Amino acid sequence: MIFEWLRNRRRRALLAGPVDPAWIAIVERNVALWGWLDDGERQRLLDIARVLVAEKDWEGGGGLTMTLEIQVTVAVQAALLLLGLKHDYYRNVDSIIVYPAGYRLPRGREGMSFLEAEHVPVLGHASPYGPVVLSWRSTLSGGRNATDGRNLVFHEFAHKLDMKDGVVDGTPPLLKRVSGPRWFKVMTKEYQRLQRQAKTGREKVLDLYGATNVAEFFAVATEAFFEKSGQLRDEQPRLYDLLKRYYGLDPAEW
Questions:
Q1: pTM (two decimals)
Q2: Domains of the chain (ranges plus CATH)?
Q3: Which long-range contacts does 4-11 make (Cβ < 8 Å, 24+ apart)?
Q4: Hey, which end of the chain has fewer CB within 10 Å, N or C?
Q5: Is the pLDDT of residue 37 over 50?
Q6: Is residue 224 within 8 Å of residue 148, measured between CB atoms?
């Protein structure tokens, strides 16, 4: 109780201060979706991002030196997912580790030691109780291109939203504005549609990687919702409407 009171007091003090002009320059340079938002949305976005920068543990991996530009670029993109949600500033994210580019993640098999584990190249990673790990190169390219449907930060932080209930199943904790049965029905049908597309290799709106499993489907659908919003609304209206209800945003109208 006292901890929460102190935390909220610190947040109020932080947000009462002015925004560093360097932040605006960074966001304008690195987050293309910033240009689509109105003044009120921009202020709310910056407020969320300022808390994320202040409260999360930021670490450079692979020799990367952590800078304000990296923190702001990541935090503002992560904050976009929270803009219309009742949120807790990603309470299940304690730390964010950023590598210069791709890195290798150990993927062991049962009975193998860490040193024997197979190391697979990845650009980002999120686990239920671990950090969010990102490639800076991919973070930057994803932020600067707002229309290709590929955004590493959206993808990994969508996973963290999914993981809030401790289950990685492509279904984050739902608010009252989203019907659980409808969520399951629509997401199942759209996931199966993407699986059929993946068998033929014909990619349309969603990245075919989303056919891997339902958790990846939610993350990939989130990327498309924010970056291919008009196309998603026109071609997969039920999926778009479901995500619009969940995120509390209508990016096709930005």
A1: 0.92
A2: 1-166 (1.10.472.150), 169-254 (3.40.390.10)
A3: 10/54, 11/51
A4: N
A5: yes
A6: no
Dihedrals phi, psi of 168, to nearest 5 degrees: -100, 90
**Matching residue, tokens 């279904």:** 171
Confidence of residue 120 (pLDDT cuts 50, 70, 90): low
What is the length of the chain?
254
